[in-house]
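Meet the record:
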Amino acid sequence: MSGASSKRILRTTVAAAAAGAVMFAPLAPLAQEADAALDPVTIRIGANAEFTRIEFAGAVGSRARVRREGDRVIVRIGSTAAPDVSRLRVDPPKGVAKVETRAVQGATELVLTLAAGAGMRSGSADGAVYLNLYAEAPDAPAGSAALTVPVTAQASAGKVSLAFRWPRAVGAAVFRRGEAVWIVFDTPARLDMSGAAALGPASDVHWTAGAGHVAVRVSAPNGGPVSARADGSTWTVTIGGEPVAVEGVRVDRDDAGKPALVAHMAGATKAVWLTDPLAGDRFAAVTALAPGKGFADRRKTVDLALLPTAHGLAVATAATDLAIHADGDLVTLSRPGGLTLSPPSAGLTAAPAAGGAPVRARYPGLILGEWAEVGHAGFPARHRQLQNAAAVEAMAAGEDPRAPVEARLALARFLVGSGLGYEAVGVLNAIVAQAPNMGGEPELRGLRGAARASIGRFEEAQGDFASAAVAGDPASAVWRGYMASARGDHVAARQAFAAGAKAVDAFPALWRARFGAAHALSALETGDLDAARALLTFSFSQNAPAADQLAARLVQARLFEMDGQSDRALAVYTAISRAPLEAVAVPAKLGVVRLSLAKGAMKADAAAIALEGLRWRWRGDATELAVIRQLGQLYLSQGLYREALTALKGAGPGLHRLDGASDIQADLGAAFRMLFLEGGADGLQPVQALGLFYDFRELTPIGADGDEMVRRLARRLVDVDLLDQAAELLKYQIDNRLDGVAKAQVATDLATVYLMDRQPEAALQAIWTSRTTLLPSALNAERRALEARALAGLGRYDHALEVLGSDSSTEARDVRAEVLWKQEKWTAAAALYEARLGDRFKDPTALTADEEARLIRAGVGYSLGRDAAALTRLSRNYRPFVAGARARPALSIALDTGAGEGPSAGDFAALTASADTFAGWVSTMKAELRRKTGGDRPAAPARPQAAAAAPAGPAA
């Protein structure tokens, strides 16, 4: 066998495994097939211990089509010349009982008859069509092979009984489908059919096991009765004989009004999806535990068909997204968009139309102007008449669940048409409370959604208009557009208005005006000014009441503003702001403030006072969001950071449902970032900045930016020696927000702060609790030096030197010198101090305080260590610096090489106290923290220019 052929077989096997076949040992292809040239029809065969693979390749063979009819697998090959299948006939694969070919019109069919229990898979890979043939069904799980269920048959001329002797109780479904009886169990197993040879009126039996089930198909003449009963754990299925009455499964609509069906079937266990080998369609069997219960009816909907069953439930469907959920005694059948069902009212008793009662509208969500007509008797009499009829009907519904609802719906129509939305919602809710399945009635959903939307309960109305019962209703689409515009979701509003365009003109003039103004606002906010003008013209033409005309004028003012006609817009805003209607006066006043600020006609402090007043005059919608956003940006432009953050944070939780709420959150985040990451708070006193941060710390962003904010603020606190507060900030980050390298970095800063505050034990804990692998080398060196300095602070000098090891970094040498000094190893410490100075004596500029401290310690150390040569060298190099030194007397004594017994340790006590290297280290660490956090840059102004703040968009 060639290497190329071997690789091809391996690739094909892997492809089959990816398509769902079980991957076993590599196939062993036959030599003649592997080496043969690719004829138009080339058949290749390979086998291993688990399955046999047959491939159909070549120009014609690769287009072969495979289907299954019962126990036969048929391969249709588009060639009238029969392929050579002698090898298959002489030595059939495991699980194949017979191989034959037959000529059909324009093609040849290869027919493989499977043995009982055998299975197959088919597919295409690497330019060939393949069959995987299994002696046992391939879908059976590994554990099911251990469970074998014996099956026995008792047959006579007119009937046959099949007994499935399970070792334990299992769920089953038994039903007829065409000329076959299906028996499905909810447990996988291997069936031993050796005791079921005599089948009586049935012709043959085939079974297959899947993951979690086993299914049996019995070919039997159509029309014969089927029954099922359980005796202990044994299920007996009888085909033929006397008919048996079936009951126990009831199918109803979902009680909650959802477009779904619910089957009441005690002991339901699972839904098993199967494919009919003859028809090729898909159906489901829902199994249930004993005793026997079935569905005697045949019911068909647009989405599915319920088949009669002897036990369990059977569902045929062409829908690929039908969901069947078995839960205890209930089986729910649904689709993502809901089942297409007749309205719940179709099952109620028809009621004669009352004379003059409001009639049903063309669309579920449509309001008709004639509904509000009261006649000569007036509103009270009309309302009383409809209310009395509704009350009588409600009383009848308490005794008869099929009682009509027409009178109650007529009352609801009258109330909605009269603008009494709250009362209409109450009537409709009472209908649903008495008959929950009426929640799926399109008109009820549409009426209740319209009533809720008309009184501003948009979230509740959205629930009604989201129902599948009104999914295709154009009037409901108009309401969805109206609500989306009010929420500020203008793109969705325009889409919804477009979907409901054909229903708009059927609404009363009042609602046509309102919908036109809302649509105009959405067109305006999406940049379609021409459409906004046309829609405003339409709205004004409806002769709506004054309040609705003012709402449209508010949109018109916004249109003037976007057109660049600011004077004209300001005039309209000013006029509307004087109206005694807060709903239009507040957004108009906001427009006045915004334009007056832009023109310079109003000062920022006066604008802030005006906006603070507006903030409390109108609450709960996009207008409040616009006022808050404008106020927050105004405060930021004045440098009033606390006031700005307080204002922006004042958008209550009730506003989070609005689309504009995300803009408020973005403004809050941007303001906090500007203050604590971009240097905006650098002009504040550190204590003020700390208080501001603590009051709004929940705005700290997740991730590197938030961590950097904390480090910058901690650095500012360190600068003014507020070390406890700085340590608290950093420790919170370590304990709650950080991991890995980031935690080690911040813990290093925390250890530094603790050491500055002379808390070596806390510094050690910060280092030790943040240990991790793969830290940068520079960070590791810094952490070693800090750990050694903390150990030295605790008097553990030897441990400190062990930690430093052979580290020769600058930080390590400084700590080593401190440790040696505290151990009174004077000469060694002095040598390190002198080495840190290097060739500094060659630079004639004055020494820094830190350099003077090192020089004093070096001189004192050489004196105490009696190293006259080193002291003489040090004195010769640095004597010229004494005259300009800050600590001139101390430096002069330290470099003195006078003869005699020399000074003692007691003589140098006061001298070494003046050489405080710790203060120098603290200064160095502060400078390093400033460098790390960008603190060495110029501070940002505390009050940035007003032009820096972007204007907030208005709410009309």
Notes: The radius of gyration is 44 Å. The longest strand covers residues 96-104.
